[in-house]
């Protein structure tokens, strides 16, 4: 679908702010983008959330996580995992994407390769946030 102009490392690693939860991703992300939905914004504590779509079978998490059971824009269940000690958002398991996780890019150990190539839920973008130059624009979830 959307090609990332930079190549990620073979294995990606990340962690929560306090280090109690860590993760490893053993395959390149399917896509990297910005989400402006009404659910990701408050979870990120920002105007948008930077997310990586990764294959579920390539994601390994270590440490205790807590889950907030939410309903996504699709109307389907979305489990939002976070660290119960420091509150860092880690990833979302959305029923609408049964083979993918949405991993919050803010926890990555290495981000020099990271280039979002799309934005989703752009009709909900804060009026003071400009579109990312060159990024594909979607009013909902992108088609992968």
From TrEMBL:
> What does the UniProt keyword field contain?
Lyase, Metal-binding, Zinc
Q: Which PROSITE patterns match?
A: CENP_V_GFA
Chain segments annotated as coiled-coil in the UniProt record = none
Q: Which family does it belong to?
A: Belongs to the Gfa family.
Can you name this protein?
A: Aldehyde-activating protein
| The keyword Lyase belongs to this UniProt entry's keyword annotation | yes
Q: Where is the CENP-V/GFA domain?
A: 12-114
- SUPFAM superfamilies linked to this entry: Mss4-like (SSF51316)
The molecular function GO annotations come to: carbon-sulfur lyase activity; metal ion binding
The keyword Zinc is annotated on this UniProt entry: yes
- Source domain of life: Bacteria
């Amino acid at each position: 679908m959307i090609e990332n102009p930079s190549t990620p490392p073979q294995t990606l690693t990340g962690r929560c702010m306090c280090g109690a939860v860590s993760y490893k991703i053993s395959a390149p992300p399917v896509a990297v983008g910005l989400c402006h939905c009404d659910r990701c914004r408050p979870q990120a504590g920002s105007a948008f959330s930077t997310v990586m779509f990764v294959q579920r079978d390539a994601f390994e998490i270590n440490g205790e996580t807590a889950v907030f059971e939410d309903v996504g824009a699709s109307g389907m269940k979305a489990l939002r995992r976070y660290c119960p000690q420091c509150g860092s958002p880690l990833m979302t398991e959305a029923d609408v994407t049964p083979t993918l996780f949405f991993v919050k890019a803010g926890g990555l150990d290495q981000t020099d390769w990271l280039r979002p190539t799309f934005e989703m839920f752009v009709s909900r973008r804060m009026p003071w946030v400009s579109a990312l130059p060159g990024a594909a624009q979607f009013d909902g979830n992108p088609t992968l």
